[in-house]
């Protein structure tokens, strides 16, 4: 049944975990190509750096550092009376997060504004609410190639120099010595991937006095490469094959190559709403987006769903947590379980993408999944099944599973828009949102009965 997941879904979810900002954790594009001369010549020189261990599977990044929590003032408004779930409220949350705030990627001011909004909602719903900051080191790669109005995203070839260099863009074939024009000095050399190792390509360019190197993939999409043992004194970046034609059309124009990659300390935050003395069960959702788009389905919808369930199912012992920085490796949920004794909780219900039904699934703890399926039933008009994410894909329930809490993610499944500029408010389907909200409400109501709380 997991075979129904499309390749797009699989690759995008992988991108969630490993590709947004971390060169060391990039998808190894090189591995899914057929053998190319790059590999034949020098396998180590073309091998993208190894993906890091998937979060929650051990070997992940160290627990994020913590900062003092920031309490939210008591609500000015009166507490909303609970009632039936209201899809319109979820839609309003999605609009606020994806339209009014928009792109809210890890560690940005917009992410913090989204956290403040969520905190205000939870406070207005009668929760004792805190914004809990945490810090972590985030890899970034802001490399780029600019020619006139054309701006192409690049990825630093590991081992090349950082910095910016400019020169006339010159076609240099695959970078072999005989294909590098005689007037290469001070120029930016455009090379095709393949034929010889990245290290050799860049060495040849440097030998010819070139200012910088741009290596274009031979297939769509970006790749990360390394010069292997070599070090270069000029910037060298890789760009997606989709850009090949546009760059070829810019031959002869002045180009600027920026190679800028590294890591920086980022501050993000979780928003925690508490009822009663201790958290004995959790509902959660990540509220950050990728930098490429406003993250309406991924995951303003899950956040809105979680907020609405927090409103109608407020129960002593049920805590609602909105996680920051999920898209760069489950950072928020990892910080949360590191900061709190979440291990004793009865369950954790996470929502990630609930606005466009493709193949609605429960992913995670088998026992909890079966409990929920038993609660919801199997009405053909509202299908929901036990499913799984593709390898290397995940969501915040995994951080709770890792500390022994039965945890699942409820998701509406595949969406080709996620992690693109097309993941917009307009693309979310309110009818699907309503179905997923109803599922979530039924599941939570059923599970809360087992909590032994009022
Ligand atoms: Zn997500």
Tally of structural domains: 2
Poorly predicted tracts of residues:
1-61
SS field, number of helical segments:
12
Tell me what the CATH architecture of the largest domain is: 3-Layer(aba) Sandwich
Bound molecules: zinc ion
Query: Quick check: average pLDDT?
Result: 84
Instruction: Give the % helix.
Output: 25-40%
What about the largest sheet?
Answer: 10 strands, mixed
Question: Regarding CATH, which class of the largest domain?
Answer: Alpha Beta
Looking at this structure, what is the CATH superfamily of the largest domain?
Answer: Zn peptidases
Number of extended strands: 17
Q: Determine the N-to-C terminus distance.
A: 38 Å
| Rg estimate, integer Å | 24 Å
Stated plainly, the CATH topology of the largest domain is called Aminopeptidase
Strand fraction equals 15-25%
Q: What would you say this structure looks like, in words?
A:
The protein has 454 residues and is an alpha/beta fold. It has 2 domains: 65-138 and 265-449, Aminopeptidase, CATH 3.40.630; 144-259, Glucose Oxidase, domain 1. 28% of the residues lie in helices and 22% in strands. Strands 1, 2, 3, 11, 12, 13, 14, 15, 16 and 17 form a 10-stranded mixed beta sheet that branches. Helix 4 (87-101) packs across helix 8 (296-312), helix 8 crosses helix 12 and helix 10 (366-376) packs across helix 12. The radius of gyration is 24 Å and the shape is elongated. The two termini are 38 Å apart. Mean pLDDT is 84; it is low at 1-61. Zinc ion is lined by residues 16, 286, 298-299, 326, 352-353. Zinc ion (ZN) binds next to helix 8.
């Amino acid at each position: 049944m997991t075979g129904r997941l499309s390749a797009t879904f699989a690759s995008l979810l992988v991108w969630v975990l490993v590709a947004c900002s971390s060169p060391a954790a990039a998808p190894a594009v090189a591995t899914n190509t057929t053998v190319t001369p790059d590999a034949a010549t020098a396998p180590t020189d073309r091998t993208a750096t190894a993906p890091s261990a998937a979060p929650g599977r051990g070997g992940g990044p160290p627990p994020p550092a913590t900062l003092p929590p920031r309490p939210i003032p008591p609500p000015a408004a009166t507490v909303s009376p609970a009632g039936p779930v209201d899809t319109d409220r979820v839609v309003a949350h999605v609009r606020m997060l994806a339209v009014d705030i928009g792109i809210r990627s890890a560690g940005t001011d917009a992410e913090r504004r989204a956290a403040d909004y969520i905190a205000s909602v939870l406070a207005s719903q009668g929760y004792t609410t805190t914004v809990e900051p945490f810090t972590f080191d985030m890899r970034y790669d802001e490399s780029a190639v600019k020619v006139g109005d054309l701006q192409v995203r690049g990825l630093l070839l590991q081992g090349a120099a950082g910095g910016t260099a400019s020169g006339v863009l010159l076609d240099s074939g695959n970078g072999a010595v005989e294909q590098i024009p005689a007037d290469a000095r001070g120029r930016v050399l455009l090379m095709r991937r393949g034929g010889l190792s990245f290290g050799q390509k860049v060495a040849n360019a440097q030998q010819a006095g070139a200012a910088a190197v741009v290596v274009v993939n031979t297939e769509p999409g970006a790749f990360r490469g390394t010069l292997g043992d070599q070090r270069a004194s000029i910037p060298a970046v890789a760009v997606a094959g989709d850009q090949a034609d546009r760059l070829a059309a810019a031959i002869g124009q002045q180009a600027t190559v920026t190679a800028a990659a590294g890591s920086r300390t980022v501050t993000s935050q979780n928003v925690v709403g508490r009822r009663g003395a201790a958290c004995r069960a959790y509902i959660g959702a990540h509220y950050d987006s990728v930098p490429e788009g406003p993250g309406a389905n991924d995951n303003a919808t899950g956040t809105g769903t979680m907020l609405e369930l927090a409103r109608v199912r407020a129960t002593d012992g049920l805590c609602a947590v909105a996680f920051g920085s999920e898209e760069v490796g489950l950072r928020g949920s990892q910080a949360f379980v590191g900061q709190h004794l979440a291990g004793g909780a009865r369950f954790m219900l996470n929502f990630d993408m609930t606005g466009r039904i493709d193949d609605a699934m429960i992913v995670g703890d088998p026992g909890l999944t079966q409990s929920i399926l038993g609660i919801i039933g199997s009405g053909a008009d509202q299908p929901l099944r036990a499913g799984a994410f593709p390898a290397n894909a995940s969501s915040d329930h995994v951080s709770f599973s890792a500390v022994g809490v039965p945890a699942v993610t409820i998701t509406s499944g595949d969406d080709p828009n996620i992690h693109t500029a097309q993941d917009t408010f307009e693309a979310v389907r309110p009818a699907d949102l309503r179905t997923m909200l109803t599922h979530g409400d039924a599941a939570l109501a059923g599970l809360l009965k087992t909590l032994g709380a009022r």
